[in-house]
Amino acid sequence: MSTGSFRSGGRDKCRLHMVTWNVATAEPPEDVTALLQLDVQPPTDLYVIGLQEVNATPVRFISDLLAEDSWSHVFMDTLAPRGFVKVTSVRMQGLLLLVFAKQIHLPYIRNIQTTYTRTGIFGYWGNKGGVSVRFSFYGHMVCFLNCHLAAHMNYALQRVDEFEYILEAQDFDITDTPHVLDHKVVFWFGDLNFRIADHGLHFLRSSINSGRLNLLWSKDQLITMKKKEPFLQEFEEGPLNFKPTYKFDRNSDTYDTSGKKRKPAWTDRILWRIKPKTPPSEDDDERASTSTDDGQDEYPILVTQDKYTSEMSYGVSDHKPVIATFNLELRKYFDTPLVHISPVGVWSADQDALLNYTIQEYFMSSTWDWIGLYKVGFKSASDYETFVWVRENELPETNEVIQISVDKDGIPLLSGEYVLGYYSTNMQSIIGLSANFQILESKRAVMEGLVPDINGLNK
Asked: In the CATH hierarchy, which fold is given to the domain comprising 339-447?
C-alpha cells in the first residue's frame, strides 16, 4: 500500500491540502477536481475543507443513520475512490468542516474531538461562529478552526472580538490541550470577513486589474489588526498574491455589478500558528535546561506553505474558494497501531469467517468497540459492509490474540478487495486496520443469479 508522501527515517513529510469557501447556500458543482487538485505530485495525505453558508437542508442519506448534506456527498464521492476516508466532520448551521485522510494514516489519527461556538454580536444568534476539529496526528496535537465572522466594512474590531470569544469558549475534553491555542499547530481559516479599508472602488478595481495587489495589502483589515493585536501576531499567513475572493456576480469572474456594488475584499483566508515555546521562569532554570517544551525539540513539527491561491473557475457562489497547501515535516511519536487485526483463512459468504485482533498497547477500550468490514475505497467509519462487536465478557490483555467469528450472512457474495478496521468508541476513530485482502466469490452468488453460471449450460 502506498504511504502517500511519507518517507521513512527520522523525519516524515505529510502534505496537507486546505480549502475555505463561502458557498452562499449554492448546491455543489459536479466536478470538484480543480478544488482538490487531485492529480498533484507528490500526492496529498490530508484534506481539510471548511465551508460557510451551506444550505441547511439535508438532501440525501448516506445510510439510515446519517443524514449528510450534498457538499459532504460530493467530497466523499470524489475522494473515497482515491483512498481517502472521511475522518470526521462538524456542522453548525451553515458552517461545515470536513477532514479526510489517506487510509494508511487512519490508525495514527487519534482522540478526535469536534466542537462549535455560536457568536451573536448583532443579535443574530447561530448564523456566525466557529467549528473546530482537533486530533493527535502521529502524536502531534493539531487543531483546525473554521470561522464565519461578522460582515461589513466597519466591524473589523468586532471580528477580532468574535475570534477571541471563540478561542475562549471552545474547550476539549483532553488534559494536555483543553483549548485551541494549547495545540502544537492550529489552522485558523474561513470567511473571516476582513475588508480593504479607505480605498475607493475605482482604485481597488484598477489595482486588481493591473495585478498590483500589493498596493492594497497595507489597508487589508486583518493585516492592520495583526499589527495591533499581539495574539494575532502568532498566526502566520502567506502573501495575498491572488485576487480578492469577494464579491463576484455568480457564474462569472466579474466583481459585483449589483446596485450595492460591494468593494472587493480578501474575506476568505487561511492562517496557521505554531505554539510558541514557553520561556523558562526565573526559579525554573535547572529544570528548564533539561526539559523540552511539549517535546517540541525531540519531536519537532515544521510547517511550510507551498501554495496560497484562489480557484477562479468556480462560479456557483459570490465568493471564490481559497486553497492552501502545506508540507508538515514531523518526527512521529509512534508508528505502531494500538490494535493489530487480520482475517484468518479464506473469506467468502459460503461460511462464517474468522478474524484475529490483538491489543498492542494499552488504551481505554470498551465493549462498545467494534470491528467493521470495509470495501477498499470506503467513505467513512460508518460505511461498513458488516460489523462485529469486540469480545464482551472480559477486557483484553495486551498482546493477547482474540478470535472472533463473522456471520456469513454479513459477508458480501461477490469477490472484491476489503479491509478490517477496529473502531474505538472512546477515541472516535479507527485505531487499527488489517492489510487489504480478497473476499472470494461465493457459491451463493451463482445460486442467487448475481453472476452467470458458466457450467449450468452443460447440465
From this structure: Immunoglobulin-like (2.60.40)
pTM above 0.90, yes or no: yes
Estimate the crossing angle of helix 156-169 against helix 221-228, to 10 degrees: 60
| Strand positions, DSSP E, 251-382 | 268-274, 301-310, 322-330, 339-344, 353-359, 370-375
Q: pLDDT (tens digit, 9 = 90+) per residue, 118-141?
A: 997 555 555 799 999 999 999 999
* Cβ-based burial of 174 (10 A; exposed 0-12, middle 13-18, buried ≥19): middle
Please tell me what DSSP assigns to residue 25. Answer: T
Buried b (16+ CB within 10 A) or exposed e, 78-96: bbbeebbbbbbbbbbbbbb
At 390-444, the pLDDT tens digits run 999 888 999 999 999 999 999 999 999 999 999 999 999 999 999 999 999 999 8
What Å distances lie between residue 36 and 17, 44, 48, 326, CA to CA? 7, 9, 10, 13
Task: For the chain, give every residue range classified as CATH 3.60.10.10.
Answer: 12-280+291-330
Domain with CATH 2.60.40.2840 in the chain: 339-447
DSSP-derived letter for residue 176 is: S
In CATH, which superfamily holds the domain spanning 12-280+291-330? Endonuclease/exonuclease/phosphatase (3.60.10.10)
